[in-house]
Amino acid sequence: MLSPRERKLIAEIWERLTPVAEDIGSDALLRMFVTFPGTKTYFAHLDISPRSAHLLSHGKKIVLAIAEGAKDISQLTVTLAPLQTLHAYQLRIDPTNFKVPVTHYILISTFLL
Which of 6, 39, 47, 110 could form a disulfide with 2 if both were Cys (CB 3.0 to 4.6 A apart)? Predict the structure, then answer.
């Protein structure tokens, strides 16, 4: 269990990341592609070169979704549930693979602070 102070710190950290969500998100995606090369297959229809519009846009969406979830970390799974449903049923991404990028984003963002 996280203490109220820890919950507040998590929310504050992610709030500080939102102005640079594109940069952090695209950097984290690029690092994910290096660490987990198989994840590139899910992005075959996008330009995933560094600083591409697709990469910046998708990275921003991910960071903002996690930041929204961090506002009430105890409800993170509820907040991210629509994205999990989208990825599992419409985009056909195995839900176990959906957890890898989220964990990766959290770790990378922590190092970038």
Answer: 6
Distance CA 54, CA 68 (A): 21
Match 């959906």 to its residue by tokens. Answer: 98
Run of H or E including 70? helix 53-70
Residues 6 or more apart whose CB falls under 8 angstroms from that of 56 comprise 22, 23, 25, 26
The answer to whether residues 52 and 22 touch, using CB atoms and an 8 Å cutoff, is: no
For 75, other C-beta atoms within 10 Å of its C-beta total: 11
Q: Name the token pair of 49.
A: 């070169």
Is residue 111 predicted with pLDDT exceeding 60?
no
Say how far residue 92 (Cα) sits from the centre of its chain. 18
Is residue 17 classed exposed, middle or buried when 0-12, 13-18 and 19+ CB atoms within 10 A define those classes? buried
Span 66-95, average pLDDT: 82
pTM to 2 decimal places:
0.78
The pLDDT tens digits for 9-49 are 989 999 999 999 999 999 989 988 988 888 888 888 999 99
